[in-house]
Amino acid sequence: MTAPAAAPMFRRVALIGLGLIAGSMSLAMRESGLAGRVVGYARSDETRDVAREIGLVDEVTDSAAEAVAGADLVVLAVPVGAMGAVAAEIAPHLAPGAILTDVGSVKQSVIEAVAPHIPAGVHFIPGHPLAGTEHSGPRSGFAGLFRNRWWLLTPLPDSDPAAVARLSDLVRALGANVETMEPAHHDLVLAVTSHAPHLIAYTMVGVADHLRRVTDDEVIKYSAAGFRDFTRIAASDPTMWRDVFLHNREATLDILGRFAEELFVLQRAIRMGDGQHLHDYFTRTRAIRRGIIEAGQDTAAPDFGRGVEKE
Ligand SMILES: NC(=O)C1=CN([C@@H]2O[C@H](COP(=O)(O)OP(=O)(O)OC[C@H]3O[C@@H](n4cnc5c(N)ncnc54)[C@H](O)[C@@H]3O)[C@@H](O)[C@H]2O)C=CC1
Ligand SMILES: O=C(O)C(=O)Cc1ccc(O)cc1
């Protein structure tokens, strides 16, 4: 539950894309009266139909232009590879003085794709909630998604501080903690904490899938906790993650290079029977986990058991 708001912070909020993140924003904003009206648009008929059926927003429009007309807050919540095209489509219809933000997992490429389309007088403030699950689609959202999670904003050098403050207030009202960051730094940090780990999980599940044939499905039957955690991550939306890797290429490749080097060192320690090295290494990594728990930032997403509903 988010805290009830005395008065709406935005008169009309337009959500472009109606999946996990937009749906969760809508549910949280409506639950606590943060928006006068929440309107939404998604590209596929099926997603719009589901959103209407479950009452995800106050109104589902049949075009992005209709959704953003008169909105004082517009949120782009589509895969990062689609942000530029959506921005070009809505740009002529944005109201002067509106705040435009996005929730994409990558920041530099989204800024490059979106900013050139945005008319003067509209405040573009890129953002990224560090909150999510492996589920996607209009049925996957829930109001509590952002509670106690970070929401990073990467304002542009000429961003209006009053608009940044207004968006920060909304994000806090959704239950999140706000921090501002340089876009390039964001992309490097997220490559370490989210993007490379997702690729490693995808790879591990792929390896197990290959092995299935030789182990007669035992890797599935006897799935222990470690592997199950990987399968949760590797069930994440293929379109979203394809776009993340293609649009945070350099940072992800840098981190994966470092990962491979470390892996070789550990492989060698195993081959050489160097138990001291392994023990020292695992002692250091355990301290990192403990630090995360102590900081109250255990972001392990619970399994909400929702089906994956694609657009
Ligand atoms: N899933 C997660 O855990 C998190 C995702 N993000 C970011 O948030 C954004 C949205 O992700 P989700 O809500 O998880 O995705 P989702 O797959 O649940 O929803 C995406 C929505 O965008 C719509 N869409 C796709 N292309 C479109 C286009 N060209 N025009 C209009 N609508 C279009 C789809 O119909 C769908 O409604 C992505 O950029 C992702 O990187 C950020 C934090 C966490
Ligand atoms: O489900 C998980 O474990 C996540 O890591 C969710 C997530 C996915 C992508 C993001 O950009 C932020 C958070």
Automatic annotation (TrEMBL):
One of its GO terms (molecular function) is prephenate dehydrogenase (NADP+) activity. Its EC number is 1.3.1.12. It comes from the Bacteria. It catalyses: prephenate + NAD(+) = 3-(4-hydroxyphenyl)pyruvate + CO2 + NADH. It is an enzyme of class 1 (oxidoreductase). Transmembrane segments: none annotated. Keywords: Amino-acid biosynthesis, Aromatic amino acid biosynthesis, NAD, Oxidoreductase, Tyrosine biosynthesis. GO terms for biological process: tyrosine biosynthetic process. Belongs to the prephenate/arogenate dehydrogenase family. This is prephenate dehydrogenase. It comes from Paracoccus alkenifer. The lineage of its organism: Bacteria, Pseudomonadati, Pseudomonadota, Alphaproteobacteria, Rhodobacterales.
